[in-house]
Design brief:
little secondary structure, about 55 residues, about 0% strand, elongated
Amino acid sequence: MNMEVHNWGLEVDNVAVGTVTASSVFLIGDNDAFVLSSFYDTPPEATAIGTIVPLSG
């Protein structure tokens, strides 16, 4: 995805961040490019592959 934004004359005085989620980007300032990446952090022994049998209660 290519996105071009022009914020000429933008001034930031104060920023208050209340909550940050698992997928967040917060950027103030000039930047030519930035790269987003993610990884799967669940340990292999916790990964269920195949048919999952529901537990009856």
